[in-house]
Amino acid sequence: MEGVTIDRIAVIDIGTNSVLMLIAETDMQGHLIPVARLAETTRLGGNIRQTGKIHPDNLSATVEALLRYRTIAQKHAVRHLVTVGTQVFRLAKNRRAVCGHIHKETGLTVRILSGNEEAAASFLGAISGSWPDNSLVIDIGGGSTELALGKGRELTDWISLPFGAVVLTEQWIHTDPPDKEACSQIRAHVFRQVPENWKSRLGSAESVVCVGGTVTTLAALHLGLSCYDAEKVNDLELSYEDIQTWLEKFCSCALRERCELIQFDPGRADIIIAGLLILETLIQISPRKKVGVSDAGLRHGIALQEFGKIKRPDLISP
Q1: Are residues 290 and 141 in the same domain?
Q2: Distance between CA atoms of 76 and 78, rounded to whole angstroms?
Q3: 36 by DSSP, 3-state: which?
Q4: How far apart are CA 130 and CA 108, in angstroms?
Q5: Which neighbouring-strand residues pair with 157?
Q6: Are residues 170 and 244 in the same domain?
Q7: Count of domains for the chain
Q8: Do the domain assignments include residue 121?
Q9: Does the residue 195 lie in any domain?
Q10: Any residues with CB less than 8 A from the CB of 254 and at least 6 apart, and which?
């Protein structure tokens, strides 16, 4: 007897900088239909490179966001909820205690993704609906940056690079606004961390797509949006010159001014420069001087994977 698929699913992604939730359905063809997208900045991975542990204050803010998300998911009649954790959990020495605390306070079980699982899901989500023969997905996070190559829906190779917008901000940016020397140090660090074989691969793909808060925030600003709109951001193409123009603008602004510019996500204002320096350096390495933007990413990929394997509508996981 053929199973019945879940009607509605929610995926929560707990990252180094933000906690994100996607509530989605699928149509008859299996295409993902977003119902709601939510994002909160809790900075769970703040100073984790220095301390090796998740701080209780950051954990408390994250738990509060998760409780709100669970309530929203229930109001949307979600039948299945999945919670995943990425680089911040892979780095944290106290991840077991953190996951135990989250489960105790919220009932949510965090599934910690490996680098391979994260890259595969981000790739699947980023190119969902479009299957070029040869695609590169760049996922700039708070604690790490993933590069994923694939053909069609199949991931063929990936790498997780040990830098992200939060990590580089904490390591290099100590003035407001950052000085030119700090920006140069970040560029040089990113360049050194990309293996030589991947530097050549950055230009081998037919399409380059970037996901994550850095690039979607940039896209919304580039479009002149005062409120974030995922549908308008999706599929926008940004040039190397666009990225440089915004970098120059941000580097001439104090944090307060950047918060005003990014009024729809002021919590990203302190790390947007480091995130854009990552993007700028990766695009500079590549002979392709343009990058496509996708609001879809890890959450969307996990949702597609879950819709593909879950058949019992009476099964509601925490």
Answers
A1: yes
A2: 6
A3: strand
A4: 32
A5: 149
A6: yes
A7: 2
A8: no
A9: yes
A10: 176, 177
Token pair of 86, please? 């990425």
SS3 labels along 108-163 = CCEEECCHHHHHHHHHHHHCCCCCCCCEEEEEECCCCEEEEEEECCEEEEEEEECC
Is residue 61 classed as helix, strand or coil in its secondary structure? helix
Q: Are 136 and 283 in the same domain?
A: yes
Q: What is the mean pLDDT of the chain?
A: 92
d(CA 20, CA 239): 27
Regions of the chain where pLDDT drops below 70: 1-6, 129-132, 310-318
Amino acid 202: pLDDT: 86
Supply φ then ψ for residue 209, to 5 degrees.
-125, 135
Residues 161 and 253 in one domain: yes
Q: Which CATH number covers residue 65?
A: 3.30.420.40
Other CB atoms within 10 A of residue 287 CB? 9
The crossing angle, in degrees rounded to 10, of helices 298-309 and 115-126 is: 90
Of all residues in the chain, what percent carry a pLDDT higher than 90? 82
User: H or E element: which one contains 274?
Assistant: helix 272-285
- 165 lies in the same domain as 68: no
Strands 9-14 and 80-85: parallel
- Residue 255 resides in a domain: yes
Question: How high is the pLDDT of residue 200?
Answer: 87
Task: Check whether residue 243 and residue 165 sit in a common domain.
Answer: yes
Phi first, then psi, for residue 105 (nearest 5°) are -85, -30
Q: Can you tell me the distance from the alpha carbon of 128 to that of 5, in angstroms, rounded to the nearest whole number? A: 19
Q: Which residues contact 156 (CB under 8 A, 6 or more apart)?
A: 149, 150
User: Domain check: are 280 and 305 in the same one?
Assistant: no
In terms of residue numbers, what domain contains 14? 9-115+299-309
Count the residues in the chain. 318
Question: Do 22 and 100 reside in the same domain of the chain?
Answer: yes
Distance, in Å, from the CA atom of 254 to the CA atom of 256, rounded to the nearest integer, reads: 5
Q: Which residue has the tokens 């944090």?
A: 255
- 45 inside domain: yes
Distance of CA 125 to the CA centre of its chain: 11
